[in-house]
Amino acid sequence: MKKLRAQVIKYAKKLNTTNLSALRSGNVSVRVKEKGVNGFYITPSGAKYSSLKTKDIVFVSLKGRFEKKKDKPSSEWRFHQDIYVNKKDAKAIVHAHSTCATAVSTHNKSIPAFHYMVGVAGGNDIKCSKYATFGTRSLSRNILSALKNRSACLMSNHGQIAFGKNLDYAFELAQEVENICHQYINAIRIGIPKILTKKEMKIVLSKMKNYKKD
Fold first, then answer.
1. Which residue in 34, 67, 76, 200 is the catalytic one?
2. How far apart, in whole angstroms, are the C-alpha atoms of residue 97 and residue 205?
3. DSSP string covering 133-161, please?
4. Backbone angles phi, psi at 194, to 5 degrees
5. How much is the pLDDT for 46?
6. How far apart are CA 63 and CA 39, in angstroms?
7. What distance in Å separates the CA atoms of residue 174 and residue 130, rounded to the nearest whole number?
């Protein structure tokens, strides 16, 4: 279990070093079973990631219970909980306030298939969830709606979230989403980009099933 806590710290620090999120913003979690209880390890609330220790990582059960101690879980723990409960293939989650994804999210619009790589999130577009106050169940519901048949989405006026079979996959997907948002911002500066058809994206999505190897 200490190894998984260390992994959470590793990727939390990578949020800073890769500029996906600055200082305390964003959060990271991984699904785990501790003492027979299903739940997840998550970064603590309000802590600088550069100074995290394994003892700082908080265990939250899938029923939303955690120890009342000095370190509280991230204020966003509820949407991590709800994703793990509703997405059985979600083993790790990365939430970031990355610059380009956050900028695009302020327009509350999905990213269309201007580039075939939007398919990395699992569909013909990358959806943007409706706005709700951070840390609320309303935000969780909105995120789950945007994640229908998807493994990543934008969060209106907030940032982005991605999940995968482990922290490496989830983090890389978050990086892909940020890059796509960067490309999209540049594309619309020129004008209205060509959007790939559903037929074209169907072929892409089929090919992407075997896109990434371990």
1. 76
2. 27
3. -TTSHHHHHHHHHHTTT-SEEEETTTEEE
4. -65, 140
5. 80
6. 8
7. 19
Q: How confident is the model over 108-152, as pLDDT tens digits?
A: 999 999 999 999 999 999 999 999 999 999 999 999 999 999 999
**Nearest C-alpha neighbor of 43 from the set 19, 76, 82:** 76
Digit-coded pLDDT (tens) for 29-64: 999 998 889 999 999 988 888 889 999 999 999 999
Rounded CA gap, 163 and 120, in Å?
Answer: 11
For the chain, give every domain's residue range.
2-208
3-class DSSP state of 34:
strand
DSSP string, 166-212: SHHHHHHHHHHHHHHHHHHHHHHHHS------HHHHHHHHHHHTTS-
Identify the burial level of 53 via C-beta atoms within 10 angstroms of its C-beta, where 0-12 means exposed, 13-18 middle and 19 or more buried: exposed
CA angle 2, 18, 20 (to 5 degrees): 90
Distance between CA atoms of 161 and 32, rounded to whole angstroms?
19
* Amino acid at the residue 70: K
CATH number, span 2-208: 3.40.225.10
Q: For residue 8, give Cα distances in angstroms to 23, 70, 181, 193.
A: 15, 19, 25, 38
34 flagged as catalytic: no
